[in-house]
From TrEMBL:
F(1)F(0) ATP synthase produces ATP from ADP in the presence of a proton or sodium gradient. F-type ATPases consist of two structural domains, F(1) containing the extramembraneous catalytic core and F(0) containing the membrane proton channel, linked together by a central stalk and a peripheral stalk. During catalysis, ATP synthesis in the catalytic domain of F(1) is coupled via a rotary mechanism of the central stalk subunits to proton translocation. InterPro entries: ATP_synth_OSCP/delta_N_sf, ATPase_OSCP/d_CS, ATPase_OSCP/dsu. Pfam families: OSCP. It comes from Actinomycetospora aurantiaca. Keywords: ATP synthesis, Cell membrane, CF(1), Hydrogen ion transport, Ion transport, Membrane, Transport. It is found in: Cell membrane; Membrane. It comes from the Bacteria. Belongs to the ATPase delta chain family. This is ATP synthase subunit delta. The keyword Cell membrane applies. The keyword Cell membrane applies. Its main location: membrane.
C-alpha cells in the first residue's frame, strides 16, 4: 500500500504503531495469497470478531501488546488462544500483530480492524467490484457528512445498534454492493475515525489504493461530464505522477471553477477561493 493511500487511515497512530501496522498488513498479504473472494470475506469477519474480543478482554489485550515481554512469547500466547478458534490466515495475522510493538494496546485492536476492512476490499477486488464499492463508500460518506444529525446518530456509541443498522439499510437501499454494506456496518459499529463520514472516505481511499491510485476530491459549482472528469484525471495524473481517481462533489457555494484536494494538498481554482484571496490581500 502506498504512503498516500494509508496516510488517512493511520493518521492517529504514532510512529511505532504505524510501522507495526505495515508489518501486520504484510502478514495478511502472505496469509491470504491466492485466497478466494469468499475466503477473504470470512477472514475479514473473523478479524473483526477477534478485535471485538480484544476490546472486551482488557487483560488479554494488554498482555498481547506488552512490549516488556518477548515477541515470541506474545505470539505464542496468541496462537494458544486463537489457533483452534479461527481460520489459519486470521491466526497468522493475529500472531504477527501480537509479535509487533504498539504505542498503546488499543492500536493493536485498531490495526486488526483496518486489516479486516482491507480483507473485505480484497474480496471486492477479486470479484471485479472494487470500483463500485469505492464509489459507494465515497458517496455514502458525503451523504452522512452533509447531515449533522445523521452523523451524530451513526457515530454515537450509545445509540441502539439495530436502529443504526436500519438507518444504514435505508441509506444504501437494495442497490449497494454486499461488501459496501459489510464495510459500512463494521465502521458504524467500530469507527476508524472520529466521524463516520471521515471513516467512509478513508475506506474509499483504501479501495483506490488497492488499484494503485490516489483519490482527488473535486468540488465543482456544476456537474462535470464523464469526459470532463476523465480529462481532469489525466491532468492530475501528469501532475502527481500516478493514476488518480476523481470523486466529484457539486457545491454551488464555490461559485465557479474547481476546488481539488489530493491527500493533504489543496488546489483552489474556485471563484470563491479567488475572492477570499483578494479579500485577504485588500485587508
Amino acid at each position: 500500500m502506498t504512503a498516500a493511500g494509508t496516510a488517512g487511515v493511520i493518521a492517529d497512530f504514532r510512529a511505532t504503531s504505524r510501522e507495526s501496522l505495515q508489518s501486520v498488513r504484510r502478514a495478511f498479504d502472505q496469509a491470504t495469497g491466492g485466497a478466494s473472494s469468499g475466503d477473504l470475506v470470512t477472514t475479514g469477519e473473523q478479524l473483526d470478531a477477534v478485535a471485538d474480543l480484544l476490546d472486551r478482554e482488557a487483560v488479554l489485550r494488554r498482555t498481547l501488546a506488552d512490549s516488556s515481554t518477548e515477541p515470541d512469547s506474545r505470539s505464542g500466547l496468541a496462537g494458544r488462544v486463537f489457533d483452534n478458534q479461527v481460520g489459519r490466515p486470521v491466526a497468522d495475522v493475529v500472531k504477527a500483530a501480537a509479535a509487533a510493538s504498539w504505542s498503546k494496546p488499543a492500536d493493536l485492536v485498531q490495526a486488526l480492524r483496518v486489516v479486516a476492512r482491507e480483507a473485505l476490499l480484497a474480496s471486492a477486488e477479486a470479484d471485479g467490484r472494487l470500483d463500485a464499492v469505492e464509489d459507494e463508500l465515497f458517496r455514502l460518506g458525503r451523504i452522512v457528512g452533509g447531515q449533522p444529525d445523521l452523523e451524530r446518530l451513526l457515530g454515537s456509541p450509545t445509540a441502539d445498534a439495530a436502529g443504526k443498522q436500519k438507518v444504514l439499510d435505508d441509506l444504501l437501499a437494495d442497490k449497494a454492493e454486499p461488501i459496501t454494506r459489510r464495510l459500512a456496518a463494521q465502521l458504524v459499529a467500530h469507527p476508524l475515525a472520529h466521524h463516520v463520514s471521515s471513516g467512509l472516505e478513508r475506506l474509499a481511499e483504501l479501495a483506490a489504493d488497492r488499484r494503485q491510485r490516489s483519490v482527488a476530491t473535486v468540488r465543482s459549482a456544476v456537474e462535470l461530464s464523464a469526459e470532463q472528469q476523465e480529462r481532469l484525471a489525466g491532468v492530475l495524473a501528469r501532475i502527481y505522477g500516478r493514476e488518480i481517481t476523481v470523486h466529484l462533489e457539486v457545491d454551488p457555494e464555490i461559485l465557479g471553477g474547481l476546488l481539488i484536494q489530493v491527500g493533504d494538498e489543496v488546489i483552489d481554482g474556485s471563484a470563491a477561493g479567488h475572492l477570499d484571496d483578494l479579500d485577504r490581500r485588500l485587508g
